[in-house]
Amino acid sequence: MVERWRKETHCFNFREGECTITLKDIAILTDLPIDGDVVCVDSTAPPKVVVNMSGWQHFIWTVTGLCPPEKGDHDADGNPPLSKGQVSITWLTAEIRRKHNPEFGGIPLTEESSERDKDIYARIYILGMIGGVFFPKKSNNLINNSWLKIILGSWDDMGNLSWASACLAQLYRFLCNASARAVKEIDGAMFIVQFWAWEHLPWIAPKVDPDKEWGPDHPLRHEAYGCR
């Protein structure tokens, strides 16, 4: 698919003609919202406000309640928790699980947990979805700290963003970058390209059980089309 991508037209060039992934495809496959404000990411480092913390350390602590060390420790993938304006998703998820794991002296997250704990857990989950699913980098582990500024916002502000258009724009950008002759790797939500190809190029799609029923009681009946 990448070899057939033409960055001049943002289309796949097939023998039968040209076609491309559209905003409607993203909305159907992922169920991400189309309508809303543009997703704008501010990469400016926050000012240092605490003596023993860098600006990003304090900002991450404000969002997640966790302070990643800039030196010394490494996550399970061998990456530092905080480096060059990026934070390790592996480190964040490991720390939040340890915080709520009784085996490590943590307090399990339940319906009776504080609103602060629930809020932090939900924001880290969304951060993982951004950095690991919809806007992944080649490392599939590090996420740019600038996303934290959006995650720190109100829930209404996050819900009123056009996430589908942001996902499509970045997908186009990464497909264009990968189409260069010398490039051997690609960033981005490649599962969207795969699902789109299965839907539009049936001869490469996996076989579907004709007896499979998607009745109203099926657990995936109301999920995004990509899940089904």
Blueprint (SSEs and pairs):
Layout lengths: L4 E2 L4 E4 L2 E3 L3 H8 L24 H10 L17 E2 L2 E3 H11 L15 H20 L7 E3 L2 H5 L3 H5 L3 H16 L11 H11 L28
Antiparallel strand pairs: 1-2, 2-3, 4-5, 5-6
Tell me what the structure shows:
With 228 residues, the chain is mainly α. The chain is 38% helix and 7% strand. The strands form 2 sheets. Strands 1-2-3 form a 3-stranded antiparallel beta sheet, with no helix packed on it. The protein has a 3-stranded antiparallel beta sheet with strand order 4-5-6. A hairpin with a 4-residue loop joins strand 1 and strand 2 (11-14). Helix 1 crosses helix 7 (163-178). It starts with a strand and ends in a 28-residue tail after the last helix. The mean pLDDT is 82.
Summarize the structure.
The chain contains 8 helices and 6 strands. The strands form 2 sheets. It has a 3-stranded antiparallel beta sheet, with no helix packed on it. A 3-stranded antiparallel beta sheet has the order 4-5-6.
